[in-house]
């Protein structure tokens, strides 16, 4: 039975009058607007492997250098919820170009930074510019393509969300090792300028949106300041909590406790306020659409998996296997190549196969790849790691593409901007929570394994004593004094123990993520079946139950 969506039947029918393509092919526009979006997502991951180089160059500690990541994420999280309002008030194309220009200019400032405070201020500006790119890109794609083609369009956009985090560590490692960390930011400048010129000449501001903006100005501009303040504080402190938790001992730190309480209070207050106020910053009533509500929840889960493992795999190979920054990035490269193959396939199938079926196949494949990672040892080869990651990389498009296509079904076209802002907030929150969850579990398991193994490394343990004597004799054969040889042997054994404890901790985290993926798979049942008319390329007025 069809239930009429809020806003009436006509409000839910796709119309080309909102398309950003104008007289050009929408596929050309999809490529053009994905350039800057790719650049923005890339910047969330490219600096991860360069922090030690940044810290050394600017004469600060590694802990201080992590604010280069945190400040970007906080600024990004703050502006995303406001992107829909800014786009509606100042014009979608105009705001998009402003975001690209701000991101490009601040990237130049990051690249020439000679002190940590200047770099952090530049990263804040970069995050503010980048926060407007992802929601606007999605909004333009949704408005420019009918539902029957939306899956293929989202596959083009999917390259920015999925491939960029995979290439970021490799590109960052190569640039840092071969040139300088400054160039991980400076490479954005020519890309940003190219994006500005292409958007200016090819992307259209639809007359319908221009008229809606003029009508909004005639009625008087209203800005939901309480809502903006609440969501900015809530997401900002949530980012600080998840990003700084491991370094600051989580809830043992007053900063983390304050951040957690503030985030919880502000986010809860934001939801209540937005449901009550007549002119909200973000329309929480969109969650009445079952597909949108389910899609927002699932995209948060995908953020946990994607961002959590993308950061964790390079960390494993650098800490345990001794890979360089470049080699750590190369581990993800093969998976990126698989993504290039499976992304178009996922886009083509999403218009023909029910999203639940595609995602129902992809979730077990992701779980299998995490199971393979949980069996890594200190002797695992580069090939084994790359293959395990490739299984995951090949499956993620079959989660992301059909989900992005299905989530907008039933959403009125004039609420597309709000919908994309909410979905991007969900993805970023999922990514932040995923990284924080992974690092917290890793730290606890490392403490557990080290404590258990150290308890066995004592003189009363005959195995330990035999190993010390054997190693000491080996060192003495090579001319090391007896007293020194014993100390060196004990040090070697402890180093081996620490390496093994690290590897066991990584395996525990991968096992936990595998169980998490299997546990959340039933969420697919929340998605409704097939409310797309493939013959007319239009959405039905209501949602199919």
Describe the structure.
This protein folds into two domains: about 1-225 and about 280-450 and about 500-545, Growth Hormone, Chain: A (Up-down Bundle); about 450-500, no CATH class. Helices cover about 75% and strands about 0% of the residues. The chain contains 21 helices and two strands. Strands 1-2 form a two-stranded antiparallel sheet.
How is the secondary structure organized here?
Blueprint (H helix, E strand, L loop, with lengths): L1 E3 L21 H20 L5 H7 L4 H4 L1 H13 L3 H8 L1 H20 L4 H15 L2 H12 L2 H32 L4 H4 L1 H15 L4 H13 L5 H20 L9 H23 L13 H30 L5 H26 L4 H20 L7 H26 L8 H39 L7 H16 L4 H39 L21 E3 L1
Antiparallel strand pairs: 1-2
Helix pairs in contact: 1-8, 1-9, 1-11, 4-7, 4-13, 5-6, 5-19, 6-7, 6-11, 8-9, 8-19, 9-15, 9-16, 9-18, 13-14, 13-19, 15-16, 15-18, 15-19, 15-21, 16-18, 17-18, 17-21, 19-21, 20-21
Give a brief description.
This protein has helices spanning 26-45, 51-57, 62-65, 67-79, 83-90, 92-111, 116-130, 133-144, 147-178, 183-186, 188-202, 207-219, 225-244, 254-276, 290-319, 325-350, 355-374, 382-407, 416-454, 462-477, 482-520, and strands at 2-4, 542-544. It has 545 residues and is mainly α. The N and C termini lie close together (6 Å).
